[in-house]
Amino acid sequence: MSTHKMNANRSQNQIKHILSIGTICGLILATLLVLGVRDATRAAAQSSFDTPATVDAAASTAQIGSLTNGASDLQNQVATLQAQNQQLRAELQSAEAQANQYEQQLAQAVQIIQQIQGQPQTSRRFR
Question: Which pLDDT score is estimated for 108?
């Protein structure tokens, strides 16, 4: 291999290593930045709880209570609807079973009528 090609390969390898190291450093910095922001947010949130109760805290508590009550109401409504759904399903199954029974009875009645119509009339009552 010529010296020029060896130098070119060495340069390419060095560039790859530099880019790899740069990427790793960038990832480390990004991680530290995210952790720093998260810690700063946590510290700010903690300091807001450490301060004495204010009107904002009372309003927030009222909002939380309202949201909790709303969620509880929704859960109750869901439970009620689920119970109604189960009841309606049971009623539907009962109605389907009854409809099947009526259908069978109707089929039997049709067979009986066909049998009667097929028999010769032996008395004047059937004329």
Answer: 92
